[in-house]
C-alpha cells in the first residue's frame, strides 16, 4: 500500500465531496487528484528527484504531498522560518530538488514553482500509475527533526509507515459530510502530514489557518463551522487566555480538540475543559519517527480525571494516555528489561508505523524491533503513559542523574509560579548545575531563595536549583517545544559563577 492508492481511494470514493478549503470553492476529492497529477507531471518534466515544499499552510500542501507520491519521489516540507545558513544546509543535502515556494531567492540554484502556480498547473496529459509502481518500502516523506538537543536530521517515513498509521487509527469515509477540521500546525511538522492523510481518508474537510493568532483561530472555527481541530500546547494556552479575557466560552460547533507535541500545564487543560464544555479533548503523543501518534488520552479519560476523587485517576490528566492498538509501548531500564508500574525509564515503541530511521544515521530500530524514543517516562498500573522529558534533557550533576520534570512539577506547585522549566547549566566542578526558569503568575511575586527553599523541602539539596531566572516567556520552536539551550545561554551570559538572577 502507498499514498498514491490512498489518493485514488479518496478520489473514487468521495470524488464530489469538498475536502480542502472553503465548502463552496475548495478542492473536491476528484479535484485534489487532478491537481496532484498535474504536479506530478511538473515534477517529471523537471527531472527532480525530490519535491521540497517551502511555504505556509494552504491547499498547495496536500496537492504537493500527493504529487510527490504520484511522481515516485520523496516529499520534504521545510521550515520557511529557517535562517539563510540553516536553509542552505538543508537544501545542500537535497538531490536535484524541485521547490514549491514563493521565495525563490532563498533557494538560489534550485528549480522553483510558485505556490499558487503549483495549484494552477495545466492538467496532466497522462495518468501517473505510481499506485502500481511505487514500492511500499520506498521513501514517501522526509521531515527535519526539531533539533532542540542536536543538529536537525532528516527523518525517513516510508509509504508503509504512513499507511500503517492511517489504517491503525482511521476508518475510511467514516465522517458526515459537514465535518471540518482546522489545521494550524506548521506544514513541516509530522502532525501536518498526519492531518492531511487521516482527514482526507475519513472524509473530513480540511481548513488551513496560514498564521495563528488566538482571535483568528476562534473566528475561523466559528466562520467555517469547524468540528475538529489540533493545536500545540502554546496555542491552546493562548486560546484559553483569549477566552478568559472575553469571559467567554469556546465555539459550540467544535466537537473535538486535540493537543500535543510538548508539555502543558494541568491548569491550562482544566480551564480549557471549562471553556469548551461541549468539546471532547484529546492529548496525542507521538514522534516524527513514529509517523505521528502512538498514544492517546481521549475525551472520556479527560472527563474521568477532572471529576475523580482518586488521586491516581486525577493524575492521568498529566499523562498522554494509552498506546494505540496498532503499536506496543514499553518502559525499559538500562538493561532493556521492562520497568514496573510507576518506575521511570526509557520509553520504547514498536509497530508497523514506526520508522525510526534517518538519512544521515540509518535505522535506530533495535534488532528486537523496539525503537528508543529518547523520551523518559513511566506507565501506571492501567497502562497510562507519563512522559517525563527527553533523555537528552537529563541533568548529570556530580554523577547523579536528575530528571528536570520532577523539579518542574514541584516548582509549579508554588502558588506564585505559573510555569517552570529546568535545565542543566555547564559547571567545571560538578559537570552540570540545576537552572530553573520561572514565569510568575500575574500579580504575584516571589524571590529566588523562596523557590529554592520550596524545592529543598519537597525534594532534597542535590535537586535544589542553583540558578533561578525569572522570564516573561520561554523560547520555543515553531511546534511549541521549549528551547532549553536558549534558556541555559541566559544563565551563562547573565549569571556566571554563583550569581543568581531574581
3D architecture notes:
- The protein has 502 residues and is an alpha/beta fold.
- Among the domains are: 1-156, Rossmann fold (3-Layer(aba) Sandwich), CATH 3.40.50; 328-390, Luciferase, domain 3 (Roll); 394-494, ANL, C-terminal domain (GMP Synthetase, Chain A, domain 3), CATH 3.30.300.30.
- The chain has 16 helices and 26 strands.
- Strands 10-9-11-12-13-14-15 form a 7-stranded mixed beta sheet.
- Helix 9 crosses helix 10.
- The longest helix is centred in the N-terminal third of the chain and has 18 residues, at 29-46.
- It is globular and about 75 Å long.
- It starts with a helix and ends in an 8-residue tail after the last helix.
- Residues 495-502 have low confidence and may be disordered.
Short description:
The chain is of the alpha/beta class. Among the domains are: about 1-155, 3-Layer(aba) Sandwich (Rossmann fold), CATH 3.40.50; about 330-390, Luciferase, domain 3 (Roll); about 395-495, GMP Synthetase, Chain A, domain 3 (2-Layer Sandwich), CATH 3.30.300. The chain is about 30% helix and about 25% strand.
CATH class category of one domain: Alpha Beta
Low-confidence stretches: 495-502
E-strand count: 26
Please report the number of helical segments: 16
Proportion of residues in β-strands:
25-35%
Q: Mean pLDDT, as a whole number?
A: 92
- Based on the coordinates given, report the CATH architecture of one domain: 3-Layer(aba) Sandwich
**Straight-line distance between termini:** 58 Å
Radius of gyration: 23 Å
CATH topology of one domain: Rossmann fold
Strand order of the largest sheet: 10-9-11-12-13-14-15
Question: Major sheet: size, sense and barrel closure?
Answer: 7 strands, mixed
Helix content: 25-40%
How would you sum up the global shape? Answer: globular
